[in-house]
Amino acid sequence: MKKSIVAGLIAASALFAGSSVNAANFQEQMDRCLSRFANTKDAASVMLECTADAGKLSGCKVVEDSAAGKGFDKAALCIAEALPMGSKSGVVKVPLKFPGGN
Questions:
Q1: Which among 4, 30, 64, 67 could bridge 99 via Cys, Cβ 3.0 to 4.6 Å?
Q2: Which CA distances in Å does 5 have to 22, 41, 51, 59?
Q3: How far apart are CA 49 and CA 39, in angstroms?
Q4: How many angstroms separate the most distant Cα atoms in the chain?
Q5: pLDDT at residue 5, as a whole number
Q6: 17: number of CA atoms within 13 Å, CB side?
Q7: Distances (CA, A) of 22 to 30, 58, 69
Q8: Residue 46: what pLDDT?
Q9: SS3 of the chain
Q10: Can you tell me the distance from the alpha carbon of 28 to that of 23, in angstroms, rounded to the nearest whole number?
Q11: What distance, in Å, lies between the first and last C-alpha atoms of the chain?
Q12: What letters, b where the CB count within 10 A reaches 16 and e where it falls short, cover 20-44?
């Protein structure tokens, strides 16, 4: 499942290329967020709306959650703290997919 989530997040953030994020640190952050807030056996999609500035996201809010009440909203907000944004600035929508299955 970890590789699937990373692939989904990397694909979703492809337009934010040019960031100097450390992939291992990002993976650790994702693992912490998921284990803390959500059941990795469940699948979910979450859409965040955030402000991008200086390579980081801030002020994120959940605008869609396919598995409301299962903690994926909190996991997505936690993951957004480490999601690289490169030089992108302004309001952005960030889709996150959690495939489940483990």
A1: 4
A2: 16, 13, 22, 23
A3: 23
A4: 36
A5: 43
A6: 3
A7: 12, 19, 31
A8: 96
A9: CHHHHHHHHHHHCHHHCCCCCCHHHHHHHHHHHHHHHCCCCCCEEEEEEEEEECCEEEEEEEEEECCCCCCHHHHHHHHHCCCCCCCCCEEEEEEEEECCCC
A10: 9
A11: 6
A12: ebeeeebbebbeebbeebbbbebeb
Edge-to-edge strand ranges of the sheet holding 44-53: 56-65, 44-53, 90-98
Rg over alpha carbons for the chain, rounded to the nearest Å, is 12
Q: Are 44 and 100 in contact (CB under 8 A)?
A: yes
């944004």: which residue's tokens? 85
Instruction: Note the pLDDT of residue 29.
Output: 87
Two structure tokens written together for 58: 């801030």
Q: How far apart are CA 59 and CA 43, in angstroms?
A: 25
Mean pLDDT by 10 residues, the chain (102 residues): 42 42 77 90 94 93 96 95 87 91 67
